[in-house]
Design goal:
The protein has 518 residues and is α/β, with parallel strands linked by helices. It contains 18 helices and twelve strands. It has a domain at 165-178 and 187-488: Alpha-Beta Barrel (TIM Barrel), CATH 3.20.20. The longest helix has 20 residues, at 457-476. The radius of gyration is 26 Å and the shape is globular. Mean pLDDT is 79; it is low at 1-83 and 85-147.
């Protein structure tokens, strides 16, 4: 009996039928659907932005800030914690808020607060290559075919975001903060009452190392939520950023939903615009320097956030997905606005190279906005499905968990000269302590704070009180009297986060104290 013939070895270069695999694939191709789902929208025609801006100021230079205006002139609101040193911490004076810290060293001499310089060249609209798909309509259509105006579109989108975040499952499938554990110190050598969780961000003192991360504004319900958040931030000594203020330019009637924050003595306030709007989008003019300055002045902001949300824009039916030239536009903005600029991701995180590019552009801080919490790919998927935008809905589901996990992004950004804000998936005080141990100046929370804020003012204060107790307890149980000491405490990584760190070359046995000045 002859021995059974062995199948040919592909590595030996011998195959009696080299097209066999290709033929099989082509035969199977006719039996399954390929490619993206067919587009169901049709007939929408892109239009220019119907922007309604405020009247321009008379001169090219803005007048200097007038004394006696803003939160500082109104006086500080009463704090929930009694003034004076804490019990057990006598002899160590407690620092207070340093308001208007941006005035020192930012504009030396008699340099005006803003000067526009030469007008920016308007880029002509690029022709559509032959065979390329038509651009997504900028103005979705209601049932019946009526186009939605840009003002209505923006207001509706802002409300949709809040409703979806509160009602739907739009969190990342894995929260990387649960992979981290601070090492317990059985002999802390510090009194519990002596623990001081205060922190600084861009020369502003915060009573807790926490920011209310940028969330909302620009729709009718935004005023009440932002007022509630700002009041709580003032009483607890937190920083606060507002949601994208593009709606203030599209619809000035929504300005009050942002300006309400200036009614409260919040120790650090950040205005907010989007990086995609710094450059022309499909023939639309970008936001200019005067617009950015106006948005900062409207809320008496100490800094300007520029959010980097290209994943969201790609999935958004009406999104802006042109990015060429955004870095140079950001650098120009940084040179002209009267305060520091924070580069912020919105849920996909960033690596060290991106943080360094933000440094080179002149940014003073970075909000890593990592993957672990709310993912706007999931948020926009829900909106795309409701609008019948099947292509974008498909992308939203496919890229729901795309990005750099927040702890990894914090470590990456902490290896640069930027001050670091850790946002993305933080749900409690232990997560905040983990972020500080990895090198963040402060942590930021969005949806975790939005949920009690939407319930009631009492629920929000109760949440923040519990959060403060958790942060102080975590510091005490690691033997850290201050936030700076916490940054040098060991922390253990496990699971997917450990895999990420090992792949990037980190010594996972020596995490903690990863800052340049460690």
């Amino acid at each position: 009996m002859e021995p059974r013939a062995r199948p040919p070895d592909p590595r030996a270069g011998h195959d009696p039928d080299p097209l066999r695999g290709r033929r099989a694939r082509h035969a199977a191709r006719g039996q399954r659907a390929l490619g993206r789902p067919d587009r169901r929208r049709a007939g929408a025609v892109p239009r220019g932005r119907a922007r309604h801006l405020r009247p321009r100021r008379g001169g090219r230079l803005l007048a200097p800030a007038q004394p006696g205006r803003g939160r500082a002139a109104r006086g500080a609101r009463p704090r929930r914690r009694p003034a004076g040193p804490r019990p057990g911490s006598q002899g160590r004076p407690r620092r207070r808020h340093r308001r208007h810290g941006r005035q020192a060293g930012l504009h030396a001499g008699d340099r005006p607060r803003w000067h526009p310089g030469p007008p920016r060249r308007r880029h002509p609209r690029r022709p559509r290559p032959p065979g390329a798909p038509r651009r997504r309509p900028r103005h979705p259509r209601r049932p019946g075919g009526a186009a939605v105006s840009e003002e209505d579109e923006t207001v509706s989108r802002k409300g949709d975001h809040v409703d979806i975040i509160l009602e739907d499952d739009v969190q990342a499938k894995h929260n990387a903060w649960n992979d981290l554990t601070l090492v317990h110190e059985a002999l802390p050598e510090v009194d519990r009452e002596a623990v001081d969780p205060s922190a600084e961000l861009l020369n502003h003192e915060l009573e807790l190392p926490l920011m209310v991360a940028s969330m909302t504004g620009g729709y009718p319900g935004g005023e009440e939520i932002n007022d509630r958040l700002a009041k709580a931030a003032a009483e607890h000594g937190l920083g606060m950023g507002v949601g994208s203020q593009r709606a203030m330019l599209d619809d000035p009637d929504q300005a009050r939903t942002y300006e309400v924050i200036a009614d409260h003595d919040v120790p650090f306030v950040a205005a907010n615009i989007g990086a995609p709007q710094l450059i022309p989008q499909d023939g639309e003019a970008p936001i200019d320097i005067e617009d950015a300055v106006h948005l900062m002045e409207a809320i008496d902001a100490d800094a300007l956030i520029v959010h980097l949300n290209y994943l969201q824009e790609v999935v958004q039916p009406e999104g802006d997905d042109e990015a060429a030239g955004v870095v140079s536009a950001l650098a120009e903005l940084v040179r002209e606005v009267p305060g520091p600029v924070i580069g912020k991701e919105t849920g996909a995180g960033m690596h060290r190279g991106t943080a360094r590019r933000l440094t080179e552009a002149g940014c003073s801080a970075v909000d890593v906005g990592g993957l672990s919490g709310t993912t706007f790919a999931a948020v926009e998927r829900i909106r795309a499905e409701a609008a019948g935008a099947d292509d974008e809905a498909w992308l939203g589901e496919r890229f729901r968990d795309w990005g750099v996990p927040t702890p990894v992004a914090v470590l990456e950004a902490a290896r640069t000269e930027l001050e670091v804000v850790a946002t993305g998936g933080l749900r409690d005080g232990v997560h905040v302590a983990n972020a500080l141990a990895l090198g963040a100046e402060v942590a930021g929370m969005a949806s975790a704070v939005l949920e009690p804020a939407a319930e009631s003012e009492e629920a929000l204060h109760a949440f923040l009180d519990r959060l403060a107790a958790e942060i102080e307890t975590a510091m005490f149980l690691t033997g850290a009297e201050t936030v700076d000491e916490l940054r040098h405490k060991p922390i253990v990584a496990d699971g997917e986060t450990r895999t990420w760190l090992e792949s990037l070359g980190y010594d996972v046995a020596a995490l903690g104290g990863q800052r340049l000045d460690a």
